[in-house]
Amino acid sequence: MPSGPSAVRETLEVPLTADESLLVTATDRSIELINAAAQAAADRLAHDIIAYDVSDVLSITDAFLVASAPNDRQVKSIVDEIEERLNKDLGVKPVRREGDREARWVLLDYVDIVVHVQHSEERVFYALERLWKDCPEITLPEDAVKTRGLGEEHAKLRAAGEVDGDLS
Predict the structure, then answer these.
(1) Shortest CA distance to 39 belongs to which of 111, 143, 128?
(2) Are 113 and 69 in contact, with CB atoms under 8 Å apart?
(3) d(CA 3, CA 83)
């Protein structure tokens, strides 16, 4: 059984206030994994990195990290960096890796956290942020926060013909 202050949760039949519903209840280990994965994604120039604490609504994991890239090659590069960094620095490997062949939406399942790295087009189409918007956001490293809005900026440059579709 995991240890830590938020490893065991009780369900109370008391409605939460708006402020209480935004409290992060993910374990410290999950937060550590999310931050390492977010930094690795930022180092590989991922766009729009965001993390949600889903521990109160899902029993299978504590947190989701979502990041995107404008092409399949970069999606693979981001995924490889996250996997390598978490293995090297924190000694963890994903129990499952899906979507690797197409590299349009790759999922890394570390049990405590799930990492979604999506091609920008899939990110817009599936809109995971819309699904998890009621969950609290997890504070990420500054480099990851700076990636917010890069996907939209890249799309505008591409539409204007200033960026090739295969390059980021």
Answers:
(1) 143
(2) no
(3) 24
Collapsing DSSP to helix, strand or coil, 153 comes out as helix
Convert the pLDDT of each residue in 89-147 to its tens digit: 999 999 999 998 889 999 999 999 999 999 999 999 999 999 999 999 999 999 999 99
* DSSP H helix total and E strand total for the chain: 7, 5
Residue 38 contacts by C-beta under 8 Å, 6 or more apart in sequence?
49, 51, 65, 67, 140, 141, 144
pLDDT by residue (tens digit) across 23-46?
778 899 999 999 999 999 999 999
User: Which long-range contacts (C-beta less than 8 Å, at least 24 apart) are formed by 122-129?
Assistant: 122/68, 123/48, 123/66, 123/68, 123/151, 128/64, 128/66, 129/50, 129/66
Give the separation between CA 146 and CA 47, rounded to whole angstroms: 9
Quote the tokens at residue 131.
């699904």
Nearest to 120 by CA among 73, 52, 64, 63: 73
Q: Token pair for residue 36?
A: 């390492």
Global pTM reads 0.80
